[in-house]
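Researcher: Quick test of sequence recovery. Tokens follow.
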């Protein structure tokens, strides 16, 4: 990093360097961070909007608090790029989200400034409370600050933590970074209440005079600061949003402009010495300082490489992803069946349900970052004959496990789970890989679990699921596209629990599900070149499993490879072993390949396949060496 282009940033190797600067130049530091992020992310893609919005608050926190002794706990971590840049990772920043590079989120193993690992939303207040409790046990003296967005505040965990913190009265600060946006428009009901109060004349007049008072008196010492605070908070409790947080045991400060550095620094300095749970509410703008991101903050939440001047990403003619295919199919089906309802947990774009939101808004619900609620809410509708389709990423559905068992399956309710991002997701890494769903769903009695081999099969499985009324039906599909062929018009019913032989062979068989069917076909083609004949079976259903196919395979093959993009432990391969055991027939020698018993890092899916041996060449090598002993 050159000194002439990055006058300040080039000299900031840690927050200690930041703290040596005069407050007057912090604005320039922020400007350089913004430029550095836009320049870098325009080349490699990544989260941008939230990071542009968090620049000032990050600089102010590291300026005022004594990090890393004082602990900052980020929520989700997608807005922590300025934090990474300021905490010794400036030069590595261009490697972010790439194989062997910096993680896109906070990670304890990456830096002493990353106090808690994140990726999933709404954890920061709970984790910070845990850190504050540990600090008090250890009789140590440092600050703990949780930074949480208004989107993450739609998650129930945040309130569980606040309630607990209010009772424990721990010395801790929650910074509420309120930009009125989640990935798309936020559905936080409380923000309507904030907006009403904040835009009201009486509050604004009061706030203006109070802010003048506090600005004037705070710097003069603790006693006056204390009095000013008391006046401010007691008056506020009558008319301001603070009421909600105060009821939970927090002292409320704000709302303040989260881009006004001087105000932020003053505010943090003032509250630093106040004990007990504090909530600082700041208003920020997603995408702040880069016009294309300000104007299209949903796209710039997570963006592919783009032209800095225009903000446009090159459009290459790629076939639609499974997500898009699902979005179109659900609209098509819902237009014909008025019992179908779409439910998303703050992921309208990511799951393709935005299409339903646009076309059939009255049967679409975005419930916020509340996966458990999404499932139980759907179960409620299902009791009255509706056919809710809950579209949630595999990784986030982990949050709703008990809801699937207790509220849906136990009551045999026909809720359809559209599980996107089943398998490796790439750059988001281990917090987001969807590699456990087959394992966690399989033991649930009565659930149907299917994985389409391609786009047509996704459509047909979805159609089949809408006709099935005996209980839950889960369809898991990967990130990206399948075979990329245009889909066939119309829908066909697929026999539940029925697989198909997609290629016959003599030397051995591969039983595959979902994305791995295509991979198995490629392996089989590769093997053919070496004179090895491999049969490929698209098992399609993980539960119920096609026992007729398993019997037939056992009668014709000695060696069988089970292939899946899910944890080997408890996944599809395990289902095959259990089925042979249950059927009491002699099983062929079974080999299981899938996600090993480890957390897979981030990188492109192709790179990661190689790491875990799921790329075609590695699978073929494994077959030759370990299965056929050639
Ligand atoms: C449990 C869970 N569900 C969904 C997501 C996907 N997600 C990542 S960021 C985000 C929006 C967060 O909004 P907010 O906290 O307001 O942060 P902002 O991006 O607006 O700064 C969502 C839904 C997630 N990370 N975790």
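Model:
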């Amino acid at each position: 990093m050159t000194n002439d282009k990055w006058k300040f940033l080039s000299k900031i190797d840690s927050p200690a360097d930041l703290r040596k600067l005069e407050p007057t130049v912090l604005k320039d530091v922020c400007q350089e961070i913004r430029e550095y992020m836009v320049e870098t992310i325009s080349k490699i893609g990544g989260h941008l909007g939230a990071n542009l919005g968090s620049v000032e608050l990050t600089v102010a926190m590291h300026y005022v608090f004594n990090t890393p002794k004082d602990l900052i706990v980020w929520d989700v971590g997608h807005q922590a790029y300025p934090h990474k840049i300021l905490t010794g990772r400036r030069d590595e920043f261009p490697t972010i989200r790439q194989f062997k590079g910096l993680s896109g989120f906070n990670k304890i193993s990456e830096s002493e400034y990353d106090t808690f690992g994140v990726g999933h939303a709404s954890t920061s207040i709970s984790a910070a409370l845990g850190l504050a409790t540990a600090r008090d046990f250890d009789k140590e003296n440092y600050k703990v600050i949780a930074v949480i967005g208004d989107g993450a505040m739609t998650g129930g965990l945040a309130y569980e933590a606040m309630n607990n913190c209010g009772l424990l009265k721990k010395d801790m600060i929650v910074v509420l970074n309120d930009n009125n946006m989640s990935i798309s428009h936020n559905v936080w009901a409380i923000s309507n209440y904030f907006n009403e109060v904040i835009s009201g004349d009486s509050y604004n007049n009061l706030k203006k005079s109070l802010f003048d008072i506090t600005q004037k008196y705070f710097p003069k010492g603790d006693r006056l600061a204390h009095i000013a605070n008391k006046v401010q908070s007691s008056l506020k409790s009558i008319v301001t949003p603070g009421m909600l947080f105060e009821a939970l045991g927090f002292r409320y400060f704000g709302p303040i402009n989260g881009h006004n550095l001087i105000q932020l620094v003053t505010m943090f300095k003032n509250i630093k010495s106040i004990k007990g749970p504090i909530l600082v509410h700041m208003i920020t703008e997603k995408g702040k300082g880069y016009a294309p991101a300000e104007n299209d903050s949903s796209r710039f939440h997570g963006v592919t490489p783009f032209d800095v001047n225009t903000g446009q990403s090159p459009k290459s003619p790629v076939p639609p992803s499974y997500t898009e295919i699902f979005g179109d199919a659900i609209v098509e089906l819902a237009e014909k069946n008025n019992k179908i309802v779409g439910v998303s947990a703050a992921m309208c774009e990511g799951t393709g349900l935005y299409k339903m939101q646009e076309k059939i808004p009255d049967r679409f619900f975005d419930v916020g970052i509340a996966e458990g609620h999404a499932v139980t809410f759907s179960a409620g509708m299902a009791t009255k004959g509706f056919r809710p389709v809950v579209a949630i990423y595999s990784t986030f559905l982990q949050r709703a496990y008990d809801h699937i068992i207790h509220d849906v399956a136990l009551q045999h309710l026909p809720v359809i789970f559209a599980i996107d991002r089943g398998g490796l997701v790439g750059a988001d890494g281990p917090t987001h890989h969807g590699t456990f769903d087959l394992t966690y769903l399989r033991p649930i009695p009565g659930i149907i679990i299917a994985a389409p081999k391609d786009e047509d099969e996704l459509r047909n499985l979805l159609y089949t699921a809408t006709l099935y009324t005996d209980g839950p039906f889960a369809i898991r599909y990967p990130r990206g596209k399948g075979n990329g062929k245009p889909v066939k018009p119309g829908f066909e019913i697929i026999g539940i629990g029925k697989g198909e032989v997609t290629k016959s062979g003599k030397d051995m068989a591969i039983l595959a599900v979902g994305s791995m069917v295509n991979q198995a076909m490629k392996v089989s083609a590769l093997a053919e070149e070496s004179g090895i004949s491999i049969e490929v079976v698209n098992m399609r259903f993980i539960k119920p499993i096609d026992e007729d196919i398993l019997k037939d395979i056992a009668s014709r093959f000695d060696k069988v490879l089970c292939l899946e993009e899910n944890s080997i432990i408890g996944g599809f391969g395990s289902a095959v072993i259990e089925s042979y055991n249950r059927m009491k027939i002699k099983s062929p020698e079974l080999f299981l390949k899938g996600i090993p018993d480890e957390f897979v890092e981030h990188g492109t899916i192709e790179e990661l396949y190689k790491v875990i041996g799921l790329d075609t060449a590695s699978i073929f090598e494994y077959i030759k060496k370990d299965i056929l002993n050639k």
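Residues 209-225 have pLDDT under 50 and may be disordered.
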